[in-house]
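Regression test case RT-17, inverse folding.

Input:
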């Protein structure tokens, strides 16, 4: 009997800030979106584990990649994604790119500068959008806008969880150079509320998110598939709303998250994309 290398945290699609293969996506493609998400979720859980040591984390991620590429069977989610890729003809490269980010998470708890953060987003977030676009047969011309939108969502998530990431994993995605620029440091993340200096850091990163959101807002105009066009329009609205909420609230005082009303308004504001 093969023992799985996976270690599921209990998180699933409902815990994300964005829809993962929602009803807006064609029914025959949803299982393939979900297969990619399950692979990403399980790999992320390995990198974030509080019980596995570094060597074990890296070894398990290597096994997931090997199974994805057809070697062994110790990763159920990698097997499922491997079958999905075979059925759809989508490259394994996007899933392999995710593993680059998760290996980075395992070995690098700090983020030296903004360039490093963007490099991380290129591997942790951009592959998700690129994979979904590939499933729909969309052109690579959609990638820059998709990469920007995915990066905005990723950085928003870092801001949402900045205190928890440090407390539970000793990990900080806020760039050292930006913390220093505004006279803050990671110890400010251990306070019950954000200091003025930390608030300036958060706002500076939200300025980057605003720029990325403006670039990402072009994605629905580039997507040819009507249903995916609507899905991406919803995600654009959700990313913009989350950035706005993070501007107005303190993520140290309480986790800032989207409401059901945010989701409903984002969907309603995007349905015209189906016309």
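Golden output:
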């Amino acid at each position: 009997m093969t023992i799985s290398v996976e270690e599921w945290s209990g998180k699933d699609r409902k815990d994300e800030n964005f829809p993962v293969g929602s009803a807006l996506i064609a029914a025959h493609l949803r299982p393939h979106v979900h297969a990619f998400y399950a692979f990403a979720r399980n790999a992320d859980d390995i990198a974030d584990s509080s019980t596995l040591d570094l060597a074990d984390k890296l070894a398990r991620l290597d096994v997931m990649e090997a199974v994805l590429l057809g070697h062994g069977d110790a990763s159920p989610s990698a097997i499922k994604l491997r079958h999905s890729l075979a059925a759809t003809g989508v490259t394994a490269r996007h899933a392999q790119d995710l593993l680059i980010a998760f290996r980075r998470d395992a070995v690098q708890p700090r983020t030296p500068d903004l360039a490093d953060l963007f490099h991380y987003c290129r591997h942790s977030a951009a592959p998700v959008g690129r994979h979904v676009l590939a499933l729909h047969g969309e052109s690579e011309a959609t990638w820059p806008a998709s990469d920007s939108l995915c990066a905005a969502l990723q950085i928003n998530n870092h801001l949402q969880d900045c205190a928890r990431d440090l407390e539970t994993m000793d990990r900080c995605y806020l760039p050292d150079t930006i913390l220093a620029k505004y006279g803050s440091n990671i110890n400010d993340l251990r306070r019950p509320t954000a200091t003025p200096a930390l608030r300036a850091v958060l706002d500076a990163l939200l300025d980057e998110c605003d720029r990325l959101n403006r670039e990402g807002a072009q994605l629905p105009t580039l997507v040819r598939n009507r249903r995916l066009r609507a899905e991406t329009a919803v995600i654009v609205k959700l990313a913009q709303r989350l950035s706005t909420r993070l501007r107005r609230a303190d993520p140290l005082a309480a986790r800032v998250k989207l409401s059901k009303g945010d989701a409903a308004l984002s969907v309603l504001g995007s349905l015209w994309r189906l016309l």
